[in-house]
Amino acid sequence: MSKGLFDGFDPVSTKQWKQKIQFDLNGADFNDTLIWNSNEDIAVKPFYNTDDLKKNPTTSSISGSPWKIGQTIFVAHIENSNLKAVNAIKRGAERIHFIIPSEENISIESLLKNIDTSAIPIHFELQFLSVEFIEKILTLTGKRDITISVDIIGNLAKTGNWFKSLTDDFSKFETCFQSSKQININTSLYQNAGANIVQQLAYALAHANEYLNHLKIDTKQTIQTIFSISVGSNYFFEIAKIRALRLLWRTLATEYNINTDCHIIATPTKRNKTLYDYNTNILRTTTECMSAILGGANTVCNLPFDAIYHKDNEFGERIARNQLLILKHESYFDKVNNPADGAYYIESLTEQLAEKALDLFKNIERNGGFLNQLKSGTIQRKIKESADKEQQQFNSGERVLLGTNKHINPNDKMEHQLQLYPFVKINKRKTLIAPIIEKRLSEQVEQTRLKNEKQNEINR
Predict the structure, then answer these.
(1) Are 80 and 213 within one domain?
(2) Are residues 309 and 269 in the same domain?
(3) Are 42 and 108 contained in the same domain?
(4) 169 and 30 in one domain?
(5) Rounded percentage of the chain residues whose pLDDT exceeds 70
(6) What is the pTM of this model?
(7) Does residue 441 sit within a domain?
(8) Residues in contact with 36: Cβ distance below 8 Å, sequence separation at least 6, in sequence order
(9) Given 2, 55, 168, 195, which is the most exposed site by the fewest CB atoms within 10 A?
């Protein structure tokens, strides 16, 4: 064909589109009827075109095919954890994520038995700080495709304390970094505690910047930066969030003249997961994994639908893994490169989220940096304000969780199914700073329903 497909159509301006829509509204106000404001203070419009972008978007470096299906395994028993990993790999897992709570009685050789680490990447998330243990992992694995997550600032934010002290933690962290050449930033806490997307991005950047300020980095060496994030249910916003994170990291890394690439490990949020009508969690995690993939996450570790109230179990984990297998091998979410590029709505969201997050990051730095604002309680207060706003939206019904605050099944009983305590645990202890507390939106409603279940049993 000598002519382009759309050559026969006249271009339509933003003004013309808006006039047509206004006519079809029969007198209703365009702004009041069709524009809504997100919790990030972004006005979402009914249509987008090139006028909404400051410049034409460039092709991103995000590829579709390399994303890997992750399997998260909490290491409570070495042999069982190893068997679970081997079985998960046979059933489609492409990356194993071991969470190790303590170095006592942990044999890396036994944990990795029958696992080909040259073919299956392994991620170790350590809930303790030990230079010897990290060096042992690197020696035994030959520094193959192994990543080790020790996030001392993340631990401070979550627990309120350093592992030992600021000086000791950073000294050991520096030693670990010189061996592994890895920086790990776990931002899931901020999302699960109720921070909005702009806050999540700004805190991730400020969190990373604290490490860059403290570490002695040879700009000639390649370092690996890993962000662990949680993905919420605001589908397009979450796609844009991950794209904005890469953009922001690239901007920060360039200032330090270091490798700008980063590895993103994404997991669905716990914040919107529910105890009642728990099968709905499968739908939530599916769309959240889709956002992660389309946004460009490198590894996606799904959250089992019953994770908040059941101990680890084969059925829940198999369903979670199968969701990813379907997305990859039946829905072909691994076949398209740069899937979100050129979508005016997503490009606009990416741009706006990145700009707002960068402004907030600069404000944090002007006021002493991330650690200083954690110490003063500013970060905790801002997250609580955001969480309280979202909680009010849920309580009023503006924020809907099906089966919990809308279309409730009164016959749904959960009291006798709880293997785990699904609510915020209160453990009074002395801390250096106020910890950031994760909390699900539906906790208060669920506690009331459980209390009524018990009362009804007593009255029978």
Answers:
(1) yes
(2) yes
(3) no
(4) no
(5) 97
(6) 0.95
(7) no
(8) 43, 44
(9) 2
Q: In this structure, is residue 332 part of a structural domain?
A: yes
- pLDDT exceeds cutoff 90 at 173: yes
In this structure, what CATH number is given to the domain that contains residue 322?
3.20.20.240
Q: What percent of the chain has pLDDT over 90?
A: 80
CA dihedral 264, 195, 422, 298 (to 10 degrees): -10
Same domain for 38 and 80? no
Provide the domain limits for residue 290. Answer: 68-349
Considering only residues 399 and 428, tell me which one the structure prediction assigns the higher pLDDT.
399
- Cα–Cα distance measured from residue 459 to residue 125, given in angstroms and rounded to the nearest whole number: 47
pLDDT value of position 220? 75
Same domain, 23 and 120: no
Does residue 382 register a pLDDT over 70?
A: yes
**Rounded Cα distance, 331 and 312, in Å:** 27
Flag whether 175 is in a domain: yes
pLDDT-derived band at 313 (thresholds 50, 70, 90) equals very high
Q: Which of 314, 349, 384 is the last residue of a domain?
A: 349
Could you tell me the two tokens for 195? 């921070």
How many domains in the chain? 2
Which of 349, 379, 398 terminates a domain? The answer is 349
Are 188 and 93 members of one domain?
yes
Burial 44-57 (b: 16+ CB within 10 A, else e): bbeebeeebeeeeb
User: Residues 253, 158: one domain?
Assistant: yes
Q: What's residue 61's pLDDT?
A: 65
Task: Tell me if 366 is assigned to some domain.
Answer: no
Q: Give the pLDDT confidence score for residue 3 in this predicted structure.
A: 63
Residue 221 pLDDT > 80: no
